[in-house]
Design goal:
With 141 residues, the chain is of the alpha+beta class. The chain has one domain: 2-Layer Sandwich (Alpha-D-Glucose-1,6-Bisphosphate, Chain A, domain 4), CATH 3.30.530. The chain has 3 helices and 6 strands; from the N terminus they run E-H-H-E-E-E-E-E-H. A hairpin with a 2-residue loop joins strand 4 (77-84) and strand 5. Helix 1 (21-29) crosses helix 2 (31-37). The longest helix is centred in the C-terminal third of the chain and has 23 residues, at 116-138. The radius of gyration is 15 Å and the shape is globular.
């Protein structure tokens, strides 16, 4: 008899941005800026605020991601839940000032062993989103 793994997987991406943490923080926590690099939303930087990220619907997915702000520690840490298509997970952004700007660490945790497709999709998606984030932050005054 073999036992199925019960360990969850986490997507972890790290990026060095040549901008101060305050600028990166704005792009993470201001709804209109968040929409530019991630998805349209009704985000508010308030612990407990429930918000929705909206993408284009596709077959078998309504395009909605239901979230709740779990932690706000300006300008160092943002965490929110992420719920879509049976996936209950969490996203955490950690910002650390560096001599060159900001070290950004993003973790999307909670992928179950039977959610390999979602894990791979998140890995690809977050790489694209963080590239978009860098572009948005570069355009801020």
């Amino acid at each position: 008899m073999t036992l199925a793994s019960t360990e969850t997987r986490t997507v972890v991406l790290e990026k060095q941005l040549s901008h101060p943490p305050a600028k990166v923080w704005r792009a993470l926590t201001e709804g209109p800026l968040l929409a530019q690099w991630l998805m349209p939303n009704d985000f508010e930087p308030i612990v407990g605020h429930k918000f929705t990220l909206r993408s284009n619907p596709v077959p078998n997915w309504d395009g909605l991601i239901h979230c709740e702000v779990l932690a706000i520690e300006p300008p160092a840490r943002l965490a929110f839940s992420w719920s879509t298509m049976g996936l209950e997970s969490a996203v955490v952004f950690a910002l650390t000032p560096t001599d060159a700007g900001t070290h950004l660490r993003m973790e999307h945790s909670g992928f179950q062993p039977d959610q390999e497709h979602a894990y791979k999709g998140a890995t690809y998606g977050w790489q694209r989103f963080l590239g978009n984030l860098e572009t948005v932050v570069a355009g801020l005054a």
